[in-house]
């Protein structure tokens, strides 16, 4: 069954405190079909120190693994209680929640039981690297995960796991799962050659398909890659496709609507339709994406995770949630289209049905470098989906091969359709 993950930095949502997550906020998420809320930046990180990047600093430079950030609480002295109440409200709304787990590094001012090296990776000058060869580290990491699981969270998005030994990390996950077997572990993994290791050895449930579908889709839009690669990635993943987490935005990447990526939501609809509908892998939204947030206030198309900032899209969402106003005509249109696609993704044909890649059997004017087409079906319900990655409109008839008709029960052998530039077309077949 397809799940929808909604990533959000609580410090950017509403007034920036846990209290902003009220019934109306959860109603909004439910209108998007969200299953999991990934509350990014909950464990206490370094702030107000000379080594800190920006103000209030990075959520990925943890100073205390057993605390939450005081600035997220209405009453900082009761911050852990307020976080537990947030978890309870999330569950009462019928949703589940994820928090960050950062196994590779901690803040320069960390004072705890983890064994550390005296250096940092890359340009993460606000951190020091964790030493996983010391037995103190896996023992402490298991305690950390148990602590957060005891607050009621349903799982973890695990940062930069490729910099951590898969076997050691897997042993910790297995140990914690003995007490909390339902926990979901999502891994930030970039190299496809590491997918098997972090699924089979480390025991993760989901991996980012960053170097697969995300990079290919972005390259297609930039005119640097071919839509044929989407087929190749699907074939390469095989039965592992359901263990991927598809996305078009997150806190590390440039906003989809920013000038550094699509430049406008209207140039990204085909990307969204493919990423959300082609398979039954879970899909992740980044808060504001659903109203066309373009990070105009940020740096090179990214919403800052280091600074206090006020993304216009998130401010508009806050007003919309509280009063029903705040979204102009364009943002309302974008939100309506996201809701339409997300509702469609919940239907059985897309959430758990079969898929048939149609690209191999299409005659001209189908362009295999700029077009992609597939069928999804389940229990007598079927849809043909056409994604047009081209700056020109597409008018064509999709051919449905006899071998597909034989296994799917679909009775039509051709589907005439139209798709606007960078858009998609969906036709119900039964």
Structural features:
alpha/beta, 430 residues, four-stranded antiparallel beta sheet, TIM Barrel, 30% helix, eight-stranded parallel barrel, Immunoglobulin-like, 2 domains
Could you explain the architecture of this structure?
By secondary structure, the chain is α/β, with parallel strands linked by helices. It is built from twelve helices and 18 strands. It folds into two domains: 4-351, Glycosidases (TIM Barrel, Alpha-Beta Barrel), CATH 3.20.20; 354-428, Golgi alpha-mannosidase II (Immunoglobulin-like, Sandwich). It has helices at residues 23-31, 79-92, 136-150, 166-179, 195-201, 210-221, 228-237, 269-277, 312-323, 329-345, 348-351, 402-408; strands spanning 4-8, 36-39, 43-45, 62-68, 96-101, 105-107, 127-129, 155-158, 184-187, 206-208, 244-247, 283-286, 354-357, 371-378, 381-388, 394-399, 414-419, 424-428. It has an eight-stranded parallel β-barrel, surrounded by four helices. A four-stranded antiparallel β-sheet has the order 13-14-15-18. Helix 1 links the parallel strand 1 and strand 2 (36-39). Helix 3 runs parallel beside helix 4. The two termini are 21 Å apart.
